[in-house]
């Protein structure tokens, strides 16, 4: 496996720190035949919109596109569960030949009558882009007839990368923002953006902000509600995690409503604390917000630090690989792994840009391999060459790690374990420890032969 050669056209998207001048290529279309780990445009828009729990999500396309259901994501709702239903127009050959607009209209009307959603999102998939169904006009017609927002999401899978799907989702949500009442919203208020309530993480973060005396108007989109999104332009600040997915909406709201935004991460002690302090600084006219933030950080860290220290003693010097969707998440993860005494020897992302990779290079030690838009063979090759003992990624990286006999930690939307905030960092350390030190790996064929 270590002898695998890299496709020539991909060489510039892979960089090993300390061995060559930094001139990394990124933000390119995936190379045909490379079997990219990237997800499609439709997947990007689904990731962002699906956690809105009181909306109908209808996929206009063949049934296969709908196979990625809620049940392999973990976005929780404290109320309605409509987002867990995966609806599809199930386009067949006849529809491809004669058009699927009629089928879409009938499906929409039937589903709205049956489930009474507060809004509906209609996702265009590859084939819809090819046959040219006019989903906008169907959405307008049904919206008028049923009296709810029916929003087309232009997420034809082939037209770009997952990032284009994020943008399509933001464009759809931007149509909802500004259509609800804002009376009674506190001047000490914010929207949480790019937090999808995987395993209840948005609830943890919301609670932190509320302990600081701040009102959370809307969460985009974890445990999301249509009415909250409609009135979210009344918030004083947008706090953006997962900037790849939500910056477009934050910028749109900044231009249209003058709402400033801050980029944060809720992963790891350092970044979690920085997020709270950065937000408190924004409300400097109310010094009690900062005072409460300081108390919160002190209490939370004191509660978990002794246990983290014990894990650190066991994990010191272990080698980790990280492969994630957006590079911003990788920064927090590198810091968190370093705080546990671990070394990151391989890091990469599906959609990072050149600024992301420059920052990644600065954070990594000499010898670390940085890879953009990787394929399974590259991830396998470098994991073996670098002696990786823990791989952190998502659903598509899990089998790679297991086949190589490497411990795996899910840091994507499929997991059922909260990793955000202080309690999340403790969960993360516990999971990393159990995975890396599990005796099962001694029986893995790849380990035995290496
Ligand atoms: S690439 Fe196209 S066909 Fe495949 S899941 Fe995405 S939208 Fe559907």
Q: Descriptors for this entry?
A:
Rossmann fold, 14 strands, globular, six-stranded mixed β-sheet, 17 helices, 450 residues, 3 domains, binds iron/sulfur cluster, alpha/beta
Which secondary structure elements does this structure contain, and how are they paired or packed?
Layout: E1 14-16, H1 41-49, E2 55-60, E3 87-88, H2 93-98, H3 101-115, E4 119-124, H4 126-131, H5 135-146, E5 150-153, H6 162-174, E6 189-195, H7 201-211, E7 215-221, H8 226-230, E8 237-240, H9 243-257, E9 261-263, H10 269-282, H11 287-315, E10 319-324, H12 327-339, E11 343-349, H13 354-363, E12 369-372, H14 376-385, E13 390-393, H15 398-403, E14 407-410, H16 421-436, H17 445-449
Parallel strand pairs: 2-3, 2-4, 4-5, 6-7, 6-8, 8-9, 10-11, 10-13, 11-12, 13-14
Antiparallel strand pairs: 1-12
